Amino acid sequence: MLTMTNIKYIRDLFEEKGLSLREIARVTGYNFRTVRKYVDKEDWSQPVVKRVRQTLIDKYKDDIDEWLISDINAPRKQKHSSKRIFNKLKQKYNNEFNISYRTVARYVSLKKKALHQESHGYIPLEHPAGEAQVDFGRAVFVENSIRYEGYYVTMSFPYSNGGYIQLFKGANIECLLQGMKNIFEHMEKVPTCIWFDNDKTIVKKILSNGERKVTDAFARFRMHYRFESNFCNPNSGHEKGHVENKVGYTRRNMLVPIPEFEDIREFNRQLLVQCDEDMQRKHYKKNVPIKTLFDEDKKAMRYIPKSEYEIYRLEKVKADKYGKVNFDNRKYSTGPQYAQRELMIKTDAFTVMIMDEEYNTVQVHKRLYGDQKESMKWGPYLELMSRRPTALKYTGFFRELPQTLQDYLTLCSYEQKKGSLRLLAKMLEQSELDTAVEAFRFCIERGIKDLDSIWAKYYTMVCTHIQVQDVLPNTKIPSVVPYTVDNTVYDNLLSGGYPICEN
User: Fold this and answer.
1) Residue 78 CB partners (closer than 8 Å, separation 6+)
2) Which of 64, 61, 98 lies closest to 84, judged by CA?
3) Which end of the chain is more exposed for a tag (fewer CB within 10 A), N or C?
C-alpha cells in the first residue's frame, strides 16, 4: 500500500503536470492499475481497519516535542538535556516506560536540529484570493444548562478579511476537521491553500528540511478536499497573524455574552449564518464590503468534492470487569456481557460508538469533555440485575445507583424488585436515568408503589408533547320536526264525556 506522500505525488503529476496515466506509471514505476486507482479515487475517508502497531518511541514523542518547543526561548543552561527528558519520561510513565536512553537521545537530537534550523526572521507574507488560515480559540458556553470551557475553530481569509467559526467542547483532531468540513460545506468551496501552526493534532514531526510529517487523519482529509497546506515556523505566530486577530474579533462579537443553547450542532449552523451577515461591513483598508472581496476569494477556490467525507477515529480498547472501556481518560459503559473483552471505539467530535470484533455496534454515547469522567448506559446492567435480584445490593452497580432507587429497591419484595428493575430498564431505552429516577421519586414520596402508576407518571414526563383533543359533535345532524301531542280525548274522559266513534 502506498504512503499518502506517494499518492499525492501521483495525483500532482496527473492534476498539476497533466501527465497521462501511462506516463505516470512509467515515471513512478507503479503499475497502470495502481496509478488509475489513486487518480480516480474520490472518497478519502479512513477505512475501518485494525490499528497498525506503532514504534516504541511514538508513544512519547508528543511529550518530548512539547518540552523541546518550550525550550526555544529558555536560557541555554535551563534547556532540557537528553538525560533530563529520559528521567522525566521514566517518572511520568513508571513501569510502562520500557525504551532505552539511546533511543530517547537519538530522537531528542533529531528534534532539536529540526527546531533550531528554522529562521527567526520576520518575512512579509502576501495571501492571494482563495487562501485561508486556521486556528483554535477558547470560549465558555452553556449547553443544556451545563457549562463548558470549550474551543472554537476559526477559519479566516486574509485577502477579503472574511471568516467563519465553529464551536466545540474540545480541541482534538476530530473537532478541528469537523469544523473545517462544516465551513467547506457551507461555502460549497474549498480554499486552495490553508495555513496552520504546528499543533500536535496535525503535525507529528518537523523534519530537518523544514517539511512536516503530518498525522494520517489530516493527510486523508487534505487529500479528499484537495487543498495545499503551509505551516508556520516554530514560535512564529506572526506568519498567521490574520487568523489570530480574527480569533479575538469573533470571540468579542459572536460569543459575548456567554452563549446558551440546547444543541451545539444547531448553534454552529446559526454561527455560519451570523458570519455571512458580518461580511456586510466594509473592509478595514480597502473600503469595500467584505462580502464583495469574499466573492473573489470563493471564485479562486476549488469546488467541494461530490463524495461525503466521514470524520472519525478508530481505537482498540479492552473492557474492564464491569464492561466499561477507557477512552481519552474517560469511561464509557457497554454491558456486563462485554466484560474483559477487546472492543473497538469509533469516535467523532460528538459521539463515541463502541463496536465488537465484527464491528457491530454495542453502545453509543455522547463524547465526554471537561470535568465529565464517565458515561453510563444502565439498561444492559439492569436487565442482568432483574434476573438476580437477591444479589442486587451486593453488586458494585447497586452502589452506583442513586440513593432514592437504592432505598426503594431495598424495601421491595422479590417479585416487585424484579419488576421494578425491568421497568427501569424499559425507561432507560427512551430517556436518561435522571428522568426515570424522578418518576420513581415522585411516586415513592406519595406512597405509590404499583408499577403501572410509576410507568404512567414517567410517561407523562417524557410525552408532554402529546395533547388530548376535545371530541366535538358532528355538525351535520339532520333537523327534527317537533311533534305536538293532542290531549283532547283524555280531557273529554276526565270531564265525563265519551269519545265519538266514527264508523
Assistant:
1) 71
2) 64
3) C
Dist CA 288 CA 242 (whole Å): 18
- pTM given for the model: 0.66
Contacts of 375 (CB under 8 A, 6+ apart): 330, 331, 332, 333, 352, 365, 366, 368
| Residue matched to cell numbers 466545540 | 168
pLDDT digits (tens, 9 = 90+) for 216-230: 999 999 999 999 998
Residues 222 and 229: their CA atoms lie apart, in Å, by 8
Please state which of the ranges 180-184, 311-315, 399-403 shows the lowest mean pLDDT.
399-403
Domain locations in the chain as residue ranges: 4-102, 131-303, 313-375
CA 384 centroid distance within chain: 31
DSSP sequence for 311-327:
--EEEEEE--TTSEEEE
DSSP assignment letter at 394: G
What's the confidence (pLDDT) of residue 497?
60
131-303 topology per CATH = Nucleotidyltransferase; domain 5 (3.30.420)
CA distance 398 to 387: 14
For residue range 274-286, list pLDDT tens digits in order: 999 999 998 888 8
